[in-house]
Amino acid sequence: MEGDAQAVGSRPVDSPWSVVDFVLIWLGGLLASSVFFAVGIALGLEDRGTLLILGLAGQYTGWLGSFWLLRRKRTQSVGFDVQPGDVLYLGIGLLLPIVIGVVISPLARLLFPDGGPPQEVTEALAEIETPIAKMLSVLAAVVLTPITEELLHRGVLLKSIAHRSRRFVMVVTAAVFVLIHVTGLDSERPLASAAVVLPPIFLLGLVLAWVTLRRERLGPAIFIHSGWNLLAVLVLFLPQELLESPPI
């Protein structure tokens, strides 16, 4: 009996993820992003694209650092499991924005007849000219962003509300996913920008939550997210004359 009591007492106390953890990790990213951005300003950096990359690097560093600190006290897994077959989901990520883009393109042309980007973050990235900065942008968008954002939204946040209905989990995680992208909207035309940018992001969030709940791990969602971002940066950095040239 004494041995059984000791065995029970030695088991780790169940410590699941909570919404508070999600908020703390998000605030950690915000703090680190502000610090990195301030350092860039102090160093005399003026290029918007470079400062944006610096701020994003701080955000993801803060998220990962905060996640690591909290992970040491949590026994619940976030499902970070990537398998070789998950690379096939990259194709879904490449196809999804094309399908959504076709549906929303009439609205985009109506609200942005000049063809300008509906996000300031997109405009800032488009101004990047140095090859190294472009390469870092692509790596961040295709690798770092999917991993960190999936850990945060389909990992910590999803696990913290997983006891609720599947529909509730999908909608809430997608809605919160949308909120973190509000800061990149066009400040001169915020409503028009939101109407064009946020619905596709919400749909992407629903898909990512659905596939995570179905597969019970983050690998598929990470590759779908990576494919989505890969198409975006390819369109952003390809020469404009190539994009406008007629098909052969």
Describe the structure concisely for a colleague:
The chain is mainly α and 248 residues long. It has a domain at 79-244.
Poorly predicted ranges = 1-12, 241-248
Strand tally: 0
Can you give the mean pLDDT? 85
Structural class by secondary-structure content? mainly alpha
Rg from Cα:
20 Å
One letter per element, helices H and strands E, the order comes to HHHHHHHHHH
> Helical region count?
10
Q: Strand portion, in percent?
A: under 5%
Distance between the termini: 80 Å
Which geometry do the CA atoms define?
A: globular
Question: Could you describe the 3D structure shown?
Answer:
- The protein has 248 residues and is mainly α.
- It has a domain at 79-244.
- Helix content is 73%, strand content 0%.
- Helix 2 packs antiparallel against helix 6 (131-160), helix 3 (48-71) crosses helix 5 and helix 8 runs antiparallel to helix 9.
- The chain starts with a helix and ends with a helix.
